[in-house]
Amino acid sequence: LTPNWEKPSSRFAIRNAAPALGGWRIAELRFFRDPDCLSQISGLGFDYHSDTADAQRAYDNDPQTFWHGDCCLNKFELDGCTGCNTDEALLGINLITNDS
Question: What is the mean pLDDT of residues 70-98?
């Protein structure tokens, strides 16, 4: 992590490294401040299309719910959307306050 990781409004995110046909789903996502994953970072979820409620499903401790990046918003193609292109979907967490 960078020296700025613990500052308020720091953001951490993941992107799809390959195409995700039909979209990308994540049931639970956690970020940690240490390599042994003992100290979890908390904050507010965000995603690439600014749907905070949808993003929060990846952090709700319920494996039955999930965030879904379909990457089809605002796409108006005759043949429809086939999913997420490489690096198109993003899910992350925004630190609201310094919780270190």
Answer: 76
Which one, of 10, 99, 100, 23, lies nearest residue 54 by Cα? 23
Q: What angle do CA 67, 69, 70 make, to 5 degrees?
A: 130
- Does residue 4 contact residue 65 with C-beta atoms inside 8 Å? no
Type of residue numbered 68: H
Tokens of 92: 């992350």
pLDDT at 79 over 90: no
Is the pTM of the predicted complex or chain greater than 0.90? no
- Contact call for residues 67 and 57 (beta carbons, < 8 A): yes
Q: What angle is formed at CA 58 by the lines to CA 53 and CA 59, rounded to 5 degrees?
A: 90
d(CA 25, CA 95): 22
